[in-house]
Design a protein that fits this description.
heterodimer, A: 358 residues, alpha+beta, Rossmann fold, OB fold (Dihydrolipoamide Acetyltransferase, E2P), 6-stranded mixed beta sheet, 9 helices, 21 strands, 27% helix, globular, B: 568 residues, mainly alpha, MetI-like fold, transmembrane transporter activity (chain A), nucleotide-binding (chain A), Mo/tungstate-bd_C_term_dom (chain A), transport (chain A), ATP-binding (chain A)
Chain lengths: 358, 568
């Protein structure tokens, strides 16, 4: 296993930037998810790591060696990086056994050892009974596991997964989550997992890199992303809740800033003294009948065990959880606590725009 | 922690070496055509327009050009009538047995033209075996009706009807079914739907198919040679043949001009059709979902009978006549059950050294061309799809040329190029190698396109997966791309084989004693009056071709769309 390092990595296609100035370090054995909407550059980063694309500038180090840089480029077949494709890319003319054995054939591993290692990989992925099948005779989940076994068998330095669950149904996804976690525990492989599904990223990864428009917006543990997003994009993309603009009062209390949000003065955690927005998670809202801040219920959905309410407060939309059903149009009182404030990099632009319009 | 393995170096270098194969391929495929263009302006003896003016002002040139235009034009009109009727009925209506009908309509295209001509000649005229059997033959001494411009037009029309059919049917499949449904909802009858919706929308493909039929008919040598030469009716290809056979290589500059003339007419034909197309282009919006099936109602059975009767007349009847002739003991004898004999078959297949040699030559050339093209097409198709560059795109655009140009043009081009090999005293003229090289140039696209289609369909992730597990380029091509493209490559190889075995035009100009091909021998046997043996040989080739077509057909559903020419 090896650590993975991107420094000042950029990639353009026909002059259009797909990745800009990516800097990140992934520790040996770490499970990292690349999360972002389609077109954000996450797959490009994965393909650069695999060696299918060459960077426009910057460099990639794997285990201390430069695999792509200004003067060097190690082709994919010499990087010892395994990859699981969204389409699985199983070779249709080879049996399950043949698919899994191919990496070892290429490495000229002696037949006896090869068979033993393939059997071990098939056993680990629960495919022992399917060695003689052709890929076309397998279900989606089984194909996924063959792709995983094919990666596992040659003991790669890192494993890349490109939206591996996108083609599976919901029930299968849940069981594949466990397969991936087990795979990671057993192999202790450095893993890079591309997905646009935040629940997948938050559930599986040690750390998540949230990407947008070719840049990493935030790279942190799932709970940090959720509780302390750095900008409006991350706050809105990861987790449920609302992002609302905030005014600075200049005062603070118990290391918390006092901000004016929706006309109310509230305490807020913050990493900066001059925040522009607050992230209001559903847990940060307590509903009561007598709170001074009034909200109107717009919709009410049952989630099992609790209700998810969409509220309208002074023109802003908030999300709250409630133990009781609320009727549409009903007026409820809202109390805010434990908010997280941040300064959005685009805030200056937004302010300048609103000034121009005024 | 493992250190990265030391770079093996091989994979990168192969990636760099592979594009080098483009050069010899471009030379073989396009060199002769380029050489021919140069010859027209007197390359070698300084720039001169002397040959150009001599040849173009000679009366025989004008007559042959006129004959070419009349026969090719008439043949094209006939092809359009036949091909369009079949295409509209097969693509738009609910007639039954479409697959079998299409397969039968395609057979004339795959049968060598000189065999078609021979078969038809056995069906008409005073010596027709089949007419004699029924006592219908015209009296001895009356002329062979097919030895005439009308005969040439008839056979050219039948031979190339399938080109119109295929192009038009492909176009009809693109017409969104909802357009027709909309017309019917507006109250239009089936006939009005056809005249007012389908016909205008399919006109572009009809014109494109007509242009293909015209260019192919213009370059056809077998039919005007068999039917026109005995009647003293020369077209441009037969004029070139007669000059070159009569005078030898000394007339090369002259025939080069003639072949350039054919090439020019062919290209003008294509340009004209492109111009007409551009004038009436409209985009089609919508999904070409379910195929159309207009209900013919009570007319269905008569239409089906009519179509099959037509197939019987253009395909079965001539072949029966050919078979009948191949079984008589001597030409002119009436076939009966008692005198039917396989003597001519035995003679032609086992005894005659020329025919045995021709079989060996043709099979060798066809196998050789198929094998060589198979080996170079796979890496080339891979390069074109996966490492596309301006150079590969240029080659992609030009590689159709040797196949699209009339065969006579390519033959002359090959003679010019290989008569004196550059930088040596060697000549390939008169050897079998010049025929092989001409076949390689001519049939390149036949092999390349199916492989290209299947590599284009191949998920690039298949190769990337192999790269990520450590397979370098050579192994990826061998272990992943080759097996997955194999069915299409096999289909392509069989098609090259089929077309090469059939081939007469190119080899008619390039053969010499010892390097005869089957096409040449059939022509020579007929020319020297050995009609019975010619028929037996022709019949054996027809059987070979139908079997090969059947093999390709049997694997039809394993190939990507468009690989099999008779299943667009």
């Amino acid at each position: 296993m090896a650590e993975l390092e991107f420094s000042n990595l950029s990639k353009s296609f026909d002059g259009l930037p797909a990745l800009q100035d990516i800097n990140a370090q992934i520790a040996s054995g770490e499970f990292v998810a690349l999360l972002g909407p389609s077109g954000c550059g996450k797959t490009t980063l994965l393909r650069l790591t695999a060696g299918f694309e060459q960077p426009t500038s910057g460099q990639i180090n794997l285990g201390g060696n430069t695999v792509a840089g200004p003067n060097s480029f190690v082709p994919p077949e010499e990087r010892e990086i395994g990859i699981v494709f969204q389409s699985y890319a199983l070779w249709p003319h080879k049996s399950v056994f043949g698919n899994v054995a191919y990496p070892l054939e290429v490495r000229r591993v002696p037949r006896a050892e090869r068979e033993a290692r393939v059997k071990e990989a098939l056993a680990l992925t629960g495919l022992s009974a399917f060695g003689d099948r052709m890929p076309s005779q397998l279900s989606g989940g089984q194909r996924q596991r063959v792709a995983l076994a094919r990666c596992l068998v040659f003991d790669p330095r890192a494993v890349l997964l490109d939206e591996p669950l996108a083609n599976l149904d919901l029930a299968l996804r849940a069981s594949m989550h466990e397969v991936f976690s087990m795979f990671h525990r057993r192999t202790q492989a450095t893993m890079l997992y591309v997905t646009h599904d935040q629940s997948e990223a938050l559930a599986l990864a040690d750390r998540v890199a949230v990407m947008e428009a070719g840049k990493i917006r935030q790279f942190a543990a799932p709970e940090v992303l959720y509780r302390e997003p750095v900008d409006c994009f991350v706050a809105g993309f990861v987790g449920d809740g609302a992002v609302v603009s905030a005014e600075i009062t200049g005062r603070s209390e118990n290391k918390n800033l006092i901000l004016k949000v929706l006309g109310q003065e509230v305490q807020s955690r913050s990493a900066t003294a001059e925040p522009s927005h607050v992230s209001i998670r559903p847990e940060a809202i307590t509903l009561s009948s007598d709170a001074p801040l009034r909200a109107k219920v717009i919709s009410c959905t049952y989630l099992g065990g609790r209700f998810r309410l969409t509220l309208d407060v002074a023109g802003e939309t908030l999300i709250a959880f409630s133990e009781h059903r609320a009727s549409i149009g009903e007026s409820v009182g809202v109390t805010l606590h434990d908010l997280w404030a941040f300064r959005d990099p685009d805030a200056d632009v937004v302010i300048a725009k609103s000034l121009a319009h005024a | 922690m493992k250190a990265l393995p030391k770079s093996r170096g091989s994979s990168r270098s192969l990636d760099r070496l592979l594009p080098i194969i483009l050069l010899p391929i471009a030379l073989i495929a396009l060199g002769p055509v380029a050489r021919l263009l140069l010859e027209g302006v007197g390359f070698g003896d300084g720039f001169t327009t002397e040959h150009l003016t001599t040849v173009l002002t000679r009366p025989s040139t004008g007559t042959a050009l006129q004959h070419s235009l009349i026969t090719a034009g008439g043949g094209t009109i006939l092809s359009i009538l036949i091909g369009a009727t079949f295409a509209y009925l097969v693509a738009l209506t609910d007639i039954r047995g479409k697959g079998a009908l299409v397969f039968c309509l395609m057979i004339p295209m795959m049968i060598p033209p000189q065999i078609t001509a021979l078969a038809w000649m056995q069906m008409a005229g005073p010596s027709s075996t089949i007419l004699k059997m029924f006592g219908l033959a015209p009296p001895l001494g009356s002329p062979q009706p097919l030895h005439s411009p009308a005969g040439i037009i008839l056979l050219l029309g039948i031979q190339h009807a399938s080109l119109v059919f295929l192009t038009l049917r492909a176009g009809l499949r693109m017409i969104p079914a909802d357009l027709v449904e909309a017309a019917r909802m507006s109250g239009a009858s089936s006939f009005r739907v056809w005249t007012q919706t389908v016909l205008p929308l399919s006109m572009p493909s009809l014109i494109a198919g007509g242009a293909m039929a015209f260019v192919t008919a213009l370059g056809n040598f077998g039919i005007p040679a068999m039917l026109g030469i005995p009647a003293g009716y020369a077209t441009l290809p037969t004029l070139i043949y007669q000059r070159l056979v009569g005078m030898g290589p000394s007339v090369l500059p002259e025939v080069a001009v003639l072949s350039l003339l054919i090439g020019t007419v062919a290209i003008l034909g294509v340009l004209l059709s492109r111009y007409v197309l551009s004038q009436r282009g409209f985009g089609l919006v919508g999904l070409s979902g379910n195929p159309l099936a207009l209900n013919l109602g009570t007319a269905r059975r008569p239409v089906e009978i009519g179509l099959w009767l037509f197939i019987f007349v253009i395909l079965a009847l001539p072949l029966l006549a050919l078979a009948a002739t191949s079984l008589i003991p001597a030409y002119g004898v009436t076939l009966t059950f008692t005198n039917a004999t396989f003597d001519a078959w035995k003679e032609v297949l086992f005894t005659q050294p020329v025919t045995r040699r021709a079989y060996a030559n043709s099979l060798m050339l066809a196998t050789g061309a198929a094998a060589v093209l198979l080996m170079i097409s796979l890496p080339l198709a891979w390069l074109m799809e996966r490492r596309s560059s301006p150079l590969t795109r240029l080659l992609d655009g030009l590689i159709d040329l040797p196949y699209a140009l009339p065969g006579v043009v390519l033959s002359i081009a090959c003679i010019l190029t290989f008569l004196n090999l550059p930088f040596t005293d060697l000549t390939l003229y008169g050897t079998i190698w010049i025929i092989l090289l001409a076949y390689l140039a001519r049939f390149f696209v036949v092999m390349l396109r199916p492989i290209q289609a299947s590599i284009a369909q191949l998920d690039p992730a298949m190769e990337e997966a192999a790269a990520s597990v450590g397979a370098h380029l050579g192994r990826r091509l061998r272990d992943i791309v080759l097996p997955l493209a194999a069915p299409s490559a096999a289909a392509g190889a069989i098609l090259v084989f089929l077309t090469a075995v059939n081939e007469l035009t190119v080899s008619a100009l390039l053969w010499s004693s010892g390097t005869e091909t089957l096409g040449v021998v059939i022509y020579n046997l007929e020319d020297s009056g050995e009609t019975v043996m010619a028929s037996a040989l022709a019949m054996s080739i027809v059987l070979l071709i139908v079997v090969l077509m059947g093999i390709v057909q049997a694997g039809a559903n394993r190939f990507p769309k468009g690989v099999i020419p008779w299943q667009s």
